[in-house]
Amino acid sequence: MSQVLLDEIVEKLSQLSVLDMAKLKDALEQKWGVKAAVASAAPAAAPVAAAVSDSTDFKVTLEAPIPDDKKISIIKAVREITGLGLKEAKDIVEGAPKELKASAPKAEADEIAKKLQAAGAKVTLKGL
Length: 128
Description:
Mean pLDDT: 80
Helix content: 55-70%
Shape: globular
Structural class: alpha+beta
Oligomer: single chain
Number of strands: 3
Low-confidence stretches: 38-52
Order of helices and strands: HHHEHHEHE
CATH architecture of the largest domain: 2-Layer Sandwich
Strand order of the largest sheet: 2-1-3
């Protein structure tokens, strides 16, 4: 394998979120029929990815800072996710970091994170 190709792969993997790393780990384990183990020389994100993939319920938190140019789209996403009114959603976005969901199943937490990230927000999922 050429060094250029390896560098491209490293660059692409470096752009993945922790949640996407966990999904990649699961997909590779399934494809190769193995169970991934965290090596002691692994980067800090690998243990986090393993911990995220083992949890069944997650706390979803909207993180600060909120980009000014994305604030309206993030407020719309928060309203859609929470069912809150405009003022309440605006208060949550402006008061970030804020917990949006205290406990959500993995699929729901992933969906919430995707919606918020598509709107331009930073989101963290913490396994419970």
